């Protein structure tokens, strides 16, 4: 029977070679001599791939150096999946980061509400205030104050008024700085439309119990939200058509080259803006594919990865090459937020800044985890260089920066138009997280001049911004980790196809052998 085993091995090898290049199977396999590619050079072949080769076509072109920076996909994969993801996952499970106060009832400012989604999985379960740590609840009153004495007879409600979201003890010398900072904070330039945490409709949400996943929310309502974001806020003229836009008129065989020719002609800042929004959109789509409702039985619903849905959104053939660009924009967005986190670390490294919940031991552990996380990301050798942005003439740069800020702030307002409550929750949080990252990147001087022992009137973060920043980056980190999982699933699927075909060939050989013996 040795001849059969030899033939089987030969068949498997032959089929593997026929169904695609082995390079596409490796997660970290990449020649270090890869040169940067332009958007045009990334366009895949228009030849229709075989059904089996499509199993890896989502990833075959996802390799090499990213545009507008000097970092490659493979380096980010290794750094995130082995070092960053485990730490950010632990961090966002801490009490300080899991409770997010949000107003999901704000009316859409741009068009009449379609009505909230009636699908049960769109529902967000708010957290009763009785379950919220007292130190977090106190954040609505003031940000810095003298901590309460645990041995005193003050009631819990009175304690809540005296505790801060970031708790510290202020010296008399710092009181004037605190007053000045409060005035500055009200007028500070924000990249997002922040919810009023004191509004009656604002509620605490436990992010761990309201996980981001596929809810069934789709169609014209969802398309209108994204269409408004891309068409009206990404500096794009109406004469330029975005590829695969379901609300745009049919363009026949247009493969999007016209759009990308226009995009490459933009200044760096406007090009970056589009790539950030596209990366955020891609990240959200990956979460929906990875946490898809696979089975809704009488008992417990089953959620898990949907490979077909992933292919539909990112496969090279099904998206006319858009899938690769979308995924690369995710990596670009990851670099932007990673850079912001590395820059803001001095803000948290000051001894008087505590992530305050009211539990001294828990707060100490959370602060230690956060500082370890910052130490880790500082070791990344290929951070994005934000100094290349808004570096022209001062007046022109200032105008462009303000235009950039207002466009993004408008996008944060569009999040109130999302019909699905759970999608709105995570859309608002991730948009605010990115807005906070942008605020950090463009506050370099203020961060460098932070006072060591007192609040700064030049730069400050609210608890809402801190929670959004860390959870927003956590979502990006999760997306890249989930890409690894999808790659393995597609690889397993492909291997199964190869083995099935090899087995089929063996059965034919055995049949032909029996015929010869007759």
Automatic annotation (TrEMBL):
<feature type="active site" description="Nucleophile">
    <location>
        <position position="420"/>
    </location>
</feature>
<feature type="binding site">
    <location>
        <position position="281"/>
    </location>
    <ligand>
        <name>FAD</name>
    </ligand>
</feature>
<dbReference type="GO" id="GO:0034975">
    <property type="term" value="P:protein folding in endoplasmic reticulum"/>
</dbReference>
<dbReference type="GO" id="GO:0071949">
    <property type="term" value="F:FAD binding"/>
</dbReference>
<dbReference type="InterPro" id="IPR007266">
    <property type="entry name" value="Ero1"/>
</dbReference>
<feature type="binding site">
    <location>
        <position position="226"/>
    </location>
    <ligand>
        <name>FAD</name>
    </ligand>
</feature>
<keyword id="KW-1015">Disulfide bond</keyword>
<keyword id="KW-0472">Membrane</keyword>
<keyword id="KW-0676">Redox-active center</keyword>
<keyword id="KW-0274">FAD</keyword>
<dbReference type="GO" id="GO:0005789">
    <property type="term" value="C:endoplasmic reticulum membrane"/>
</dbReference>
<feature type="region of interest" description="Disordered">
    <location>
        <begin position="36"/>
        <end position="55"/>
    </location>
</feature>
<keyword id="KW-0249">Electron transport</keyword>
<dbReference type="GO" id="GO:0016972">
    <property type="term" value="F:thiol oxidase activity"/>
</dbReference>
<feature type="disulfide bond" description="Redox-active">
    <location>
        <begin position="420"/>
        <end position="423"/>
    </location>
</feature>
<feature type="binding site">
    <location>
        <position position="313"/>
    </location>
    <ligand>
        <name>FAD</name>
    </ligand>
</feature>
<dbReference type="GO" id="GO:0015035">
    <property type="term" value="F:protein-disulfide reductase activity"/>
</dbReference>
<feature type="binding site">
    <location>
        <position position="213"/>
    </location>
    <ligand>
        <name>FAD</name>
    </ligand>
</feature>
<feature type="active site">
    <location>
        <position position="423"/>
    </location>
</feature>
<keyword id="KW-0285">Flavoprotein</keyword>
<feature type="binding site">
    <location>
        <position position="278"/>
    </location>
    <ligand>
        <name>FAD</name>
    </ligand>
</feature>
<dbReference type="Pfam" id="PF04137">
    <property type="entry name" value="ERO1"/>
</dbReference>
<feature type="binding site">
    <location>
        <position position="215"/>
    </location>
    <ligand>
        <name>FAD</name>
    </ligand>
</feature>
<comment type="similarity">
    <text>Belongs to the EROs family.</text>
</comment>
<keyword id="KW-0325">Glycoprotein</keyword>
<feature type="disulfide bond">
    <location>
        <begin position="157"/>
        <end position="192"/>
    </location>
</feature>
<keyword id="KW-0732">Signal</keyword>
<feature type="disulfide bond" description="Redox-active">
    <location>
        <begin position="117"/>
        <end position="122"/>
    </location>
</feature>
<dbReference type="InterPro" id="IPR037192">
    <property type="entry name" value="ERO1-like_sf"/>
</dbReference>
<keyword id="KW-0256">Endoplasmic reticulum</keyword>
<keyword id="KW-0560">Oxidoreductase</keyword>
<keyword id="KW-0813">Transport</keyword>
<feature type="signal peptide">
    <location>
        <begin position="1"/>
        <end position="26"/>
    </location>
</feature>
<protein>
    <recommendedName>
        <fullName>Endoplasmic reticulum oxidoreductase beta</fullName>
    </recommendedName>
</protein>
């Amino acid at each position: 029977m040795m001849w059969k085993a030899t033939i089987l091995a030969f068949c498997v090898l032959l089929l593997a070679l026929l169904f695609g290049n082995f390079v596409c199977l490796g997660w970290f396999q990449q020649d270090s001599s890869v040169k940067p590619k332009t958007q045009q050079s990334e366009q895949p072949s228009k030849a229709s791939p075989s059904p089996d080769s499509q199993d890896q076509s989502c990833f075959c072109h996802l390799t090499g150096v990213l545009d507008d920076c000097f970092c490659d996909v493979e380096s980010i994969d290794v750094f995130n999946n082995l070092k960053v993801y485990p730490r950010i996952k632990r961090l966002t499970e801490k009490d300080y980061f899991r409770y997010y106060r949000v107003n999901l009832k704000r009316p859409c400012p741009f068009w009449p509400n379609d009505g909230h989604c009636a699908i049960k999985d769109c529902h967000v379960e708010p957290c009763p205030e009785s379950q919220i740590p007292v130190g977090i609840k106190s954040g609505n009153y003031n940000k810095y104050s003298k901590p309460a004495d645990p041995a005193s007879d003050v009631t819990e409600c009175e304690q809540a008024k005296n505790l801060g979201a970031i708790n510290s003890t202020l010296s008399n010398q710092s009181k004037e700085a605190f007053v000045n900072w409060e005035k500055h904070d009200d007028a500070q330039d924000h990249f997002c439309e922040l919810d009023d945490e004191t509004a009656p409709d604002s509620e605490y949400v436990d992010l761990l119990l309201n996980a981001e996943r596929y809810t069934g929310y789709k169609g014209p309502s969802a398309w209108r939200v994204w269409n408004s974001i891309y068409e009206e806020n990404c500096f794009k003229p109406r004469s330029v058509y975005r590829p695969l836009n379901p609300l745009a008129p049919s363009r026949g065989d247009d493969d999007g080259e016209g759009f990308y020719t226009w995009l490459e002609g933009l200044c760096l800042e406007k090009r970056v803006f589009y790539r950030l929004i596209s990366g955020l959109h891609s990240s959200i789509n990956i979460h929906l594919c990875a946490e898809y409702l696979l089975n809704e039985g009488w008992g417990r619903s089953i959620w898990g990865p949907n490979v077909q849905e992933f292919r539909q959104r990112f496969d090279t053939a099904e998206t006319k090459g858009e899938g690769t660009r979308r995924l690369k924009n995710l990596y670009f967005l990851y670099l932007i937020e990673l850079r912001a986190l590395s820059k803001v670390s001095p803000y948290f490294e000051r001894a008087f800044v505590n992530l305050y919940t009211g539990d001294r031991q828990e707060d100490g552990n959370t602060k230690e985890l956060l500082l370890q996380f910052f130490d880790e990301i500082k070791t990344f050798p290929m951070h994005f260089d934000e100094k290349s942005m808004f570096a022209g003439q001062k007046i022109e740069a200032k105008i462009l920066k303000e235009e950039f800020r207002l466009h993004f702030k408008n996008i944060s307002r569009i999040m109130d138009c999302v019909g699905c409550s759970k999608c709105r929750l995570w859309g608002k949080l991730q948009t605010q997280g990115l807005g906070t990252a942008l605020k950090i990147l463009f506050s370099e001087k203020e961060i460098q001049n932070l006072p060591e022992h007192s609040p700064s009137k030049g730069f400050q973060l609210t608890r809402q911004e801190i929670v959004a920043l860390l959870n927003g980056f956590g979502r990006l980190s999760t997306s890249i980790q989930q890409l690894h999982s999808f790659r393995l699933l597609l690889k397993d699927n492909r291997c199964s196809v190869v083995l099935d075909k090899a087995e089929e060939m063996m059965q034919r050989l055995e049949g032909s052998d029996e015929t010869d013996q007759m």
